[in-house]
Design brief:
Keywords: Membrane, Transmembrane, Transmembrane helix. The protein is mostly helical. It has one domain. It has 3 helices and no strands. It has helices at about 1-35, 40-50, 55-60. Helix 1 (about 1-35) runs parallel beside helix 3 and helix 2 (about 40-50) packs across helix 3 (about 55-60). The protein is elongated and about 55 Å long.
Length: about 60
């Protein structure tokens, strides 16, 4: 039974990691698209979102001064 329980935990963990990877990629894509629509450099915002994650999306919504 222990082998079955461990394999189920591993499968669940794979799903969770896969879900977060998809969310991470989606967040980066959204930041790049929003930056290009606002007239900002989408490459810079791609890397900002890559390294800062959700903070990059929040900063992107702040109006430029």
């Amino acid at each position: 039974m222990a082998v079955v329980e461990n394999s189920l935990k591993f499968a669940t963990m794979e799903l969770i990691v896969g879900f977060f990877c998809i969310l991470f990629a989606l967040g980066i894509s959204i930041a790049t698209i929003l930056a290009s629509r606002k007239g900002r450099n989408s490459v810079n915002w791609f890397f900002l979102s890559l390294f800062w994650g959700i903070v990059g999306l929040i900063v992107l919504h702040v109006p430029s001064i």
